[in-house]
């Protein structure tokens, strides 16, 4: 078990594509860490560079006090679960789980004992003689996890561990993975493009864009206080309202309406400045009656989210979204008012969060 | 069952069964008409000659003389003559060496090695190597034979000039080695291309998974690559074993000599039947070759069918 540290890590692919641009990152021992970002942002490259499957162009990777930058993947003492699980089709479950031990020249009896022990822990004990082709997707994933656990590596790396499961199973696996990681206490880095997955599982996460880390923080931090408009737009199951604004005294002019300056930006703005005002649909209060400091307009779309509704208001030709609890949803064409919560609204100057 | 959206008659699976037999819906007659030309060609050019060879093998048919006009059925005489003739067994043994050396070891090992080394390469090196290997394959046999005779020539050959040993008689001193290397060179392209395609189907994550476990290059081959391309290996072995077994091109280099030292079965048949004129005996040996081929094919197909 070990902490992971990246110092100025850079990866340039042949052809000049800069996948990682001088990244610094510290992942403490035992943390469940998510790398999140849109496709092509470099998150998978980062994970693969950690594993040693890609060689870093510059900078260093330190795992548990040991600089492993130039070390072969097999000697780094990390284990990885691949997106397709990479189970060997010609080996049964026991042999698959025990494979890394076999390479490390662990005796056959010891290997099988260890495989059986880990397999039983993951509920695979009835399946140990089967081939991967005879297992369901969820079972295959557990075999891949068992293989990783059997290695007793210092760190685990998961590459999109849930993306090959169907939607229902994915939720179960999410809970299961989080519980397992907590019990094992092994430093784990996982890559995902699904922000809900990252928010749900990770202790902390890094949001990446084009080879840069745009924000590192706990799920609560990145959700409530995105450090820039990229993270603000990327995180959240309903996209954050990002609206052009101008400072007018102690209010902001947004889409022709006046809203109070958010708590986080108080005293940090200059008169007449042009900014971006951000508020999540979840952090607005919707009402049919005009209210102080709210954005008023006509309801153009109502989307059902299950226990709530996402209402889109046309406020002077600007779309503003608000989440409305079930039962209170307006009809299309109604007049409505969305009042942002002052303690949750944010202001971005040149794309970066304005805060003390 | 609440979903009674279709009448119970539609649940009858008879139509589905009919589709599985006649997917194109042509009917027996029209489907037969489509297959007939191909079947006719196969019958005329493959089945009939094969049967004719078996028939000839039972006769004392000769190229010239009385038996050419008036051949008689001699039963199994030709076959008995063959299996009691040391020259036949010598040829069989040489053919075995030829197949093992040039096909199973030479072409497969070399073809796989080239494919493995080039698997992650792009650009000029790969194109040049592949181009050269494939060139050896697509050149006409007569041209290739001339090139090799020029290469191995005793007094003015390229190889002797390169090695600085003029006068070394490669084709006389090492006839089998010469034709084995010649055939390896000639046929490697097929194996290389087949393995190149096969290696492209090995999931990279499986190799990476093995690498992360600390597997060496050989262990990766043993545990990931070979199990994945097992079918390709067997198919490749089947094809090139049969091709090499029946290959006549060694004749172009050594003419079976010196003194029968490179007389593989294909050459042996040619010498017996066409140079010696003993068509009946040659046909009998051809029938035996056919049987050996059949055994080889069945052996590989069995391996291929037995899943792991």
TrEMBL record, chain A:
Gene3D superfamilies: 2.40.50.100, Nucleic acid-binding proteins, P-loop containing nucleotide triphosphate hydrolases. One of its GO terms (cellular component) is ATP-binding cassette (ABC) transporter complex, substrate-binding subunit-containing. One of its GO terms (molecular function) is ATP binding. Keywords: ATP-binding, Cell membrane, Membrane, Nucleotide-binding, Translocase, Transport. Residues 4-235 form the ABC transporter domain. InterPro entries: AAA+_ATPase, ABC_transporter-like_ATP-bd, ABC_transporter-like_CS, ABC_transpr_FbpC, ABC_transpr_MalK/UgpC-like, Mo/tungstate-bd_C_term_dom, NA-bd_OB-fold, P-loop_NTPase. This is Sn-glycerol-3-phosphate import ATP-binding protein UgpC. It comes from Nonomuraea cavernae.
TrEMBL record, chain B:
Residues 93-300 form the ABC transmembrane type-1 domain. The keyword Cell membrane applies. It is a multi-pass membrane protein. One of its GO terms (biological process) is transmembrane transport. It holds the Pfam family BPD_transp_1. The chain crosses the membrane at residues 34-55, 94-116, 128-151, 163-185, 229-245, 279-301. PANTHER family: BLR7065 PROTEIN, SPERMIDINE_PUTRESCINE TRANSPORT SYSTEM PERMEASE PROTEIN. This is Amino acid ABC transporter permease. It comes from Nonomuraea cavernae.
């Amino acid at each position: 078990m070990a902490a992971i540290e990246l110092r100025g890590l850079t990866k340039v692919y042949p052809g000049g594509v800069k996948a990682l641009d001088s990244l610094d990152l510290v992942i403490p021992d035992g943390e469940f860490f998510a790398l999140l970002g849109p496709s092509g942002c470099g998150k998978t490259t980062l994970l693969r560079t950690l594993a040693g499957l890609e060689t870093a162009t510059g900078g260093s990777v330190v795992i548990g006090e040991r600089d492993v930058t130039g070390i072969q993947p097999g000697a780094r003492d990390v284990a990885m679960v691949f997106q397709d699980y990479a189970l060997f089709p010609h080996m049964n479950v026991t042999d698959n789980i025990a494979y890394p031990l076999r390479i490390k020249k662990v005796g056959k009896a010891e290997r099988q004992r260890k495989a059986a022990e880990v397999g039983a822990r993951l509920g695979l004990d009835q399946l140990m003689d089967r081939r991967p082709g005879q297992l369901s997707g969820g079972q295959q994933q557990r075999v891949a996890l068992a293989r990783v656990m059997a290695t007793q590596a210092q760190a685990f790396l998961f590459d999109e561990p849930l993306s090959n499961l169907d939607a229902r199973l994915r939720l179960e696996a999410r809970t299961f993975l989080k519980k397992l990681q907590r019990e094992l206490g092994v430093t784990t880095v996982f890559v995902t493009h699904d922000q809900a997955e990252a928010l749900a599982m990770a202790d902390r996460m890094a949001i990446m864009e084009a080879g840069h880390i745009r924000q590192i923080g706990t799920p609560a931090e990145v959700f409530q206080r995105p450090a820039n408009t990229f993270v603000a737009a990327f995180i959240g199951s309903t996209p954050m309202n990002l609206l052009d604004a101008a400072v007018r005294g102690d209010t902001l002019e947004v889409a022709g309406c006046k809203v109070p300056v958010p708590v986080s930006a108080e005293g940090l703005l200059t008169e007449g400045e042009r900014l971006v005002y951000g508020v999540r649909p979840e952090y607005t209060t919707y009402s049919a009656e005009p209210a102080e400091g709210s954005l008023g307009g006509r309801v153009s779309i109502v989307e059902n989210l299950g226990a709530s509704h996402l209402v889109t208001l046309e406020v002077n030709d600007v779309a503003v979204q608000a989440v409305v609890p079930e039962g209170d949803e307006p009809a299309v064409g109604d007049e409505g008012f969305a009042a942002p919560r002052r303690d949750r609204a944010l202001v971005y100057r040149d794309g970066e969060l304005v805060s003390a | 069952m609440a979903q009674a959206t279709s009448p119970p008659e539609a649940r009858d699976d008879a139509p589905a069964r009919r589709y599985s037999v006649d997917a194109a819906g042509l009917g027996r007659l029209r489907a037969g008409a489509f297959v007939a030309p191909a079947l006719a060609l196969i019958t005329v050019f493959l089945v009939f000659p094969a049967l004719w060879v078996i028939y000839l093998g039972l006769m004392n048919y000769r190229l010239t003389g009385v038996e050419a006009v008036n051949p008689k059925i001699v039963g199994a005489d030709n076959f008995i003559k063959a299996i009691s003739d040391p020259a036949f067994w010598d040829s069989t043994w040489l053919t075995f060496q030829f197949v093992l050396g040039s096909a199973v070891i030479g072409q497969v090992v070399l073809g796989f090695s080239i494919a493995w080394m080039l698997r992650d390469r792009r650009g000029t090196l790969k194109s040049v190597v592949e181009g050269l290997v494939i060139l050896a394959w697509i050149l006409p046999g007569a041209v290739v034979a001339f090139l090799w005779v020029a290469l191995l020539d005793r007094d003015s050959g390229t190889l002797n000039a390169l090695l600085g040993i003029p006068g070394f008689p490669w084709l006389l001193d090492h006839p089998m080695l010469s034709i084995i290397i010649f055939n390896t060179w000639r046929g490697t392209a097929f194996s290389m291309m087949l393995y190149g395609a096969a290696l492209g189907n090995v999931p990279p994550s499986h190799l990476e998974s093995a690498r992360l476990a600390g597997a060496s290059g050989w262990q990766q081959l043993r545990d990931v690559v070979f199990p994945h391309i097992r079918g390709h290996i067997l198919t490749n072995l089947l094809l090139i074993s049969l091709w090499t077994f029946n290959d006549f091109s060694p004749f172009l280099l050594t003419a079976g000599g010196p003194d029968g030292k490179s007389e593989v079965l294909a050459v042996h048949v040619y010498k017996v039947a066409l140079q010696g004129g003993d068509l009946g005996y040659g046909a009998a040996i051809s029938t035996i070759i056919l049987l050996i081929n059949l055994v080889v094919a069945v052996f590989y197909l069995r391996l291929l069918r037995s899943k792991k």
